[in-house]
């Protein structure tokens, strides 16, 4: 069987849209699950859109996501160059070959004539389509114009009647009336190929067997089919994937700042979680399981699980998946991700950041949630006495005041040198036992007093051990003061 070769062919725009990354991922998975080659081709022929450093964005994103290519601009390969602009000189001879085969023709219509045609169409309310004026020029006419150096383009000769059918793995057979197809330009006046032509020739020359691309290219596919046929080349398997939408009406867009891989990284998601989530955008695994590492995706992915309806980007689902990935990290890995976010808020040098990270791991869905969760360590902010009210445990402000008053001397009795989580825990539980009360009656008011919050990473015991004895006593006294008013 022919070796599977897939390609990701991004245009360097300086931006890795989630939809493009998903195309790269699917393309990679199709190659890797069949021991095939995954090729990176940079389609940079649209110089107007060229952005400095944009190719690096592509390299860095793919590498970070683990989508390593087997052939590409930086590592070369047998069918290079892998940057389209470096291949520009080679297309014209293919167009000329096509002219000889009867699948294309020279067109000498100048701008003036074409502008006139366009104006005419406009006046009649028709969509412009080239009128095939040069299609029937005789060989002699063509030769004499070429000899005279008349500028020309080369156009694809579409069949004048009949239908063309192409196959898409997802959409099945799509049949189009050839009459609807314009004799599109393949080679421009400057001798350079149009995008559609370069794309087809490159895919052929690079031995591509499967093409995954956005379905905005679906309408070009019949023309591609005819080009392949005219050359007598084998047509690759096409898989046109649906857009990723923000909601039913709107595409995910750059403008909203939520459409690129970079945006998601800035929002505190883990790379592995993003890769896992985008695989699920438009693809449904066979079973219930949705958490897959990249090697697992290679095994699980199946073209038949792809969907024809647009995928809606669901931040809540991404969040839930991210939380699962965070839980799976080792404490050391989590700390390496989380510490910078903790440090945004916790500047005190005496506070043990590793311990805060341990306390955070289970309650973090997204890294950017962290600063807000640890905003009380350096200094206690003003808070409302109502925070002490806890309906479920039947604790009110009065009971809390009593608890804090009981806690204070117990804590004062712990020697500074013995100020550890374990000792604080033991002393408070002695108090609980001695007073014969529920744990919550002591521990909940204690948490509020040391943090000014009703919910925190870790409880009062962990927090007080982290902030030290003096600060803890101060905070408990503040609580007593607040509740005594
Ligand atoms: N360069 C095109 C894009 O970035 C890719 C089209 C294709 O994959 O065929 O949209």
CATH topology of the largest domain: Rossmann fold
How many domains? The number is 4
Global mean pLDDT: 95
Number of helical regions:
19
Can you walk me through this structure?
This protein has 485 residues and is mostly helical. It folds into 4 domains: 5-82 and 244-315, Rossmann fold; 85-241, HUPs (Rossmann fold, 3-Layer(aba) Sandwich); 329-373, no CATH class; 385-484, Arc Repressor Mutant, subunit A, CATH 1.10.10. Helices cover 43% and strands 9% of the residues. It has 19 helices and 11 strands. The protein is elongated and about 110 Å long. The mean pLDDT is 95. Glutamic acid binds at residues 9-11, 43, 199, 211, 213, 217.
Search tags:
485 residues, mainly alpha, Rossmann fold, 43% helix, binds glutamic acid
SSE arrangement:
Elements: E1 5-8, H1 18-32, E2 37-40, H2 54-64, H3 92-101, E3 104-107, H4 111-123, H5 139-147, E4 153-156, E5 163-168, E6 172-177, E7 185-187, H6 195-205, E8 210-214, H7 221-231, E9 237-241, E10 244-245, H8 261-266, H9 271-279, H10 294-300, E11 311-312, H11 315-328, H12 331-343, H13 353-361, H14 370-373, H15 397-412, H16 421-435, H17 439-451, H18 460-467, H19 469-484
The structure holds glutamic acid.
Would you kindly provide a brief summary of this structure?
This protein has 485 residues and is mostly helical. 43% of the residues lie in helices and 9% in strands. The chain has helices at residues 18-32, 54-64, 92-101, 111-123, 139-147, 195-205, 221-231, 261-266, 271-279, 294-300, 315-328, 331-343, 353-361, 370-373, 397-412, 421-435, 439-451, 460-467, 469-484; strands at residues 5-8, 37-40, 104-107, 153-156, 163-168, 172-177, 185-187, 210-214, 237-241, 244-245, 311-312.
């Amino acid at each position: 069987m022919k070796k599977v070769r897939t390609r990701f062919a991004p245009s360097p725009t300086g931006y890795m849209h989630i939809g493009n990354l998903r195309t790269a991922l699917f393309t990679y998975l199709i190659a890797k699950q069949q021991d095939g080659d995954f090729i990176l081709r940079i389609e940079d022929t649209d110089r107007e859109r060229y952005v400095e450093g944009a190719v690096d964005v592509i390299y860095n994103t793919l590498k970070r996501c683990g989508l390593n290519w087997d052939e590409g601009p930086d590592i070369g390969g047998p069918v290079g160059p892998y940057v389209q602009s470096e291949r520009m000189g080679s297309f014209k001879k293919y167009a000329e070959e096509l002219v000889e085969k009867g699948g294309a023709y020279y067109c000498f219509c100048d701008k003036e004539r074409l502008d006139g045609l366009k104006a005419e169409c406009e006046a009649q309310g028709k969509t412009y389509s080239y009128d095939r004026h040069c299609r029937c020029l005789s060989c002699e006419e063509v030769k004499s114009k070429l000899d005279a150096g008349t500028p020309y383009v080369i156009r694809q000769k579409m069949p004048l009647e009949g239908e063309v059918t192409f196959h898409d793995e997802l959409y099945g057979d799509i049949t189009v009336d050839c009459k609807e197809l314009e004799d599109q330009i393949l080679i421009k006046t400057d001798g350079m190929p149009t995008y559609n032509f370069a794309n087809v020739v490159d895919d052929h020359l690079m031995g591509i067997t499967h093409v995954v691309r956005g379905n905005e290219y679906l309408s070009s596919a019949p023309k591609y089919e005819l080009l392949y046929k005219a050359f007598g080349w084998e047509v690759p398997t096409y898989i046109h994937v649906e857009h990723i939408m923000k909601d039913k009406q709107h595409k995910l867009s750059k403008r909203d700042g939520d459409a690129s891989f970079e945006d998601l990284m800035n929002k505190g998601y883990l790379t592995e979680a993003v890769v896992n989530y985008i695989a699920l955008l438009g693809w449904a695994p066979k079973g219930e399981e949705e958490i897959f590492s990249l090697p697992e995706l290679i095994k699980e992915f199946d073209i038949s699980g792809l969907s024809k309806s647009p995928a809606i980007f669901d931040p809540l689902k991404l969040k839930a998946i991210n939380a699962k990935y965070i839980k799976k990290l080792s404490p050391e890995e989590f700390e390496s991700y989380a510490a910078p976010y903790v440090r945004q808020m916790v500047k005190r040098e005496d506070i043990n950041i590793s311990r805060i990270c341990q306390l955070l791991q289970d309650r973090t869905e997204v890294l950017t949630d962290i600063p807000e969760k640890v905003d009380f360590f350096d200094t206690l902010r003003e808070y409302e006495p109502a925070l002490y009210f806890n309906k479920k445990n039947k604790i009110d402000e009065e009971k809390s005041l009593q608890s804090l008053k009981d806690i204070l001397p117990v804590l004062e009795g712990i020697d500074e040198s013995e100020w550890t989580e374990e000792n604080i825990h033991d002393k408070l539980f002695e108090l609980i036992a001695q007073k014969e009360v529920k744990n919550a009656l002591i521990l909940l008011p204690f948490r509020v007093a040391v943090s000014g919050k009703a919910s925190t990473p870790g409880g009062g015991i962990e927090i007080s051990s982290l902030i030290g004895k003096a600060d803890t006593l101060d905070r408990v006294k503040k609580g007593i003061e607040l509740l005594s008013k």
